[in-house]
C-alpha cells in the first residue's frame, strides 16, 4: 500500500475551570481514533490565565491508558491517588500510567501567567492495561543541528532516545525548525506517524499544516520530510498500528461497553457529596470536589479500531 498523508483539523472543546478553558482536539476523530497507541491529542494556548482562569481540573478517574503532559509555557501541578505530586514544566515529560485505575487533578500554578501545551493519551495493550498505576518524569536533553532542535520524550529519533517506559513501541518528540529549514527525518517504516503543529507554518512532504493541524502519515515511510515556511514548533508522534479494538468514553478506555459502565459505576460509588472515598481509583490528596461522570449515552458504545 502506498503511504499517504491526511490532515486532521481540530475542534474546540471546553476543558473546565471557572471560565471554561478551551482546548483544540485533533484526536480522536470520527474517521481516525489512533495513531499507533496515541489515542487523544489536545492542544491549548497560549492563553492568558487572567482571561481564561487557567487549568483547574478537579480529581477525575482514568483506566487503561497513559497520560503524557507536555508544556511549552506555564506550569501545572499534578496530584494523583498513587501519591505522586509533581510540577509539569516546559520541555519535561510527566507520564502517568492509569492501568487498572487511578484518579488525579491538574491545576495551573499561581505563578503561571500564560498556559500553553498539549495533553496526550496512550492506549495500553491487553497484556498491561490492568497494571498497577505509576508515574514517571523525564527532562530530555535537546539535540540540535543546523536550523533545528528536538527533545525526544518517548522512543528514539534524530540520535536521541528516551528511557521512559512504554507498553507498545512509541515515538514522541518536540521539534523546532528555523524559517526555510527542510529536515529529512529517518523513521521506523512500520510506524504510522502524526505531526501536530504548535506554532508556525510547515509542510510535511507537500502537505501544508496550520497551527493545531495534525498530519497523519500511514506506515511504509522510511523518512519524513518537513519544511518550515516560517519558524515553527511541532510534536512528532508515532507507533505501529495498535492492532486492538478499544472502547473509549469520557476518561476511560476499556474493551466493551459493559466494562465502561462498570468503571463509571465504581467511580460514582467513590464520590460522597463530591469527596472521594477509597476504591479502584484511590483518593487524591487535594481539597477539591471530584468530577462526577456524565450520564451514559442511550446507545451502546462502539469499538474504535
Automatic annotation (TrEMBL):
Residues of the Pirin C-terminal domain:
174-269
Q: Which residues form the Pirin N-terminal domain?
A: 21-122
Could you cite one Gene Ontology molecular function of this protein? metal ion binding
- What InterPro entries has UniProt attached to this entry? Pirin, Pirin_C_dom, Pirin_N_dom, RmlC-like_jellyroll, RmlC_Cupin_sf
* Keyword Metal-binding (UniProt): yes
Q: Keywords assigned by UniProt?
A: Iron, Metal-binding
Which residues are noted in the entry as Fe cation-binding? 60, 62, 104, 106
Record note on cofactor:
Binds 1 Fe cation per subunit.
Q: What is this protein called?
A: Pirin
Q: Which organism is it from?
A: Nocardioides exalbidus
